[in-house]
Task: inverse folding
């Protein structure tokens, strides 16, 4: 129980530390605003909401990559350089526990970011659905949430001296979730809050596309794998190289079938690279959503297993690197 309390305390401190970083709020607010702008599109490409849906999921992946890589570097490499890690490890805390606690703290941040990004993806796709015009309520919620959250957090900080960055982040998360609830009630067939139209066809065209949740969940799995890679690299490298290498691994994995898959049967190096670099296409299945398609939950379970195995192997390598790294 003592070790469990130690682990829980380290995870909680890591989460609080990352949430209070201004870059966490900046990336989250920019992600929401860009998703709102993605819904302001004038082209259908054969399907209402397709461009906004694909753009919003891509925004979640890119900004989640930046957040995961930066959070991993902040929570480990900077603490190793500043002496904070040495102070903690001088207590009866093992290096493996310290490393795993940092990873789980970063995972909690990724889950919170995904809890903010997933409703934003749903609202962005909803705002881009064409009936007569773009839905102003869904778009307005996404556009107004970041500035209002910042303004309210500034007032709370002035009145109570609560931390501005973390307060704004939590306000933004709660506001987006409440905004999604408002949009759901607005288009509920039994609700009197629907502003226009009636009938089954109208409800079908204006419904929230819950089938996007598995796609967003797959992106979350990819971000957790990226966090494990970035945290392992952070045991030996500073922030900038870790972010660059994480982005390179992402690009290499997205092109893995083209770069290495075709030559894997003829080249030993290509075969090794094809198996070592994670194939991010397993987590990027937006083509399955075309024309009303769905991602099955069985596939989500298989992708979760793949992410768990790769994350476990990466963390094992990271712990070995951390055991033999110099902590100042």
Result:
């Amino acid at each position: 129980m003592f070790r469990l309390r130690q682990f829980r305390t380290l995870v909680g401190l890591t989460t609080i530390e990352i949430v209070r970083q201004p870059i966490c709020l900046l990336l989250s607010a920019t992600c929401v605003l860009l998703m709102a702008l993605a819904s302001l599109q004038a082209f259908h490409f054969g399907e209402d909401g397709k461009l906004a849906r694909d753009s919003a999921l891509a925004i979640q992946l890119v900004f989640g990559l930046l957040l995961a890589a930066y959070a991993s570097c902040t929570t480990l490499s900077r603490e190793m350089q500043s002496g904070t890690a040495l102070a903690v490890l001088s207590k009866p805390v093992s290096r493996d526990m310290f490393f795993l606690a940092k990873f789980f703290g970063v995972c909690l941040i990724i889950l919170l970011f995904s809890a903010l990004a997933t409703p934003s993806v749903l609202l962005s796709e909803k705002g881009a659905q064409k009936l007569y015009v773009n839905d102003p309520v869904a778009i307005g919620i996404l556009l107004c949430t970041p500035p209002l959250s910042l303004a309210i957090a500034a007032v709370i900080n002035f009145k109570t001296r609560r931390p501005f960055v973390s307060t704004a982040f939590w306000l933004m998360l709660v506001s987006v979730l409440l905004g999604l609830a408002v949009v759901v009630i607005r288009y509920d067939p039994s609700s009197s809050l629907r502003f226009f139209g009636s009938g089954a066809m109208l409800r079908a065209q204006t419904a929230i596309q819950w089938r996007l949740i598995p796609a967003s969940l797959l992106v979350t799995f990819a971000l957790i794998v990226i966090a494990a890679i970035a945290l392992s690299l952070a045991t030996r490298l500073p922030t900038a190289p870790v972010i660059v290498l994480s982005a390179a691994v992402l690009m290499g994995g997205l092109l893995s079938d083209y770069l290495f898959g075709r030559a894997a049967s003829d080249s030993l190096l290509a075969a090794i690279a094809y198996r070592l670099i994670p194939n991010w296409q397993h987590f990027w299945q937006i083509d399955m959503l075309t024309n009303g398609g769905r991602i099955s939950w069985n596939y989500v379970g298989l992708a979760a297993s793949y992410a768990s195995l790769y994350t476990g192997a990466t963390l094992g390598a990271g712990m070995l690197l951390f055991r033999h790294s110099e902590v100042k």
Remarks:
- The two ends are 30 Å apart (CA to CA).
- Residues 189-205 have pLDDT under 50 and may be disordered.
- The chain is about 75% helix and 0% strand.
- Residues 95-128 form the longest helix (34 residues).
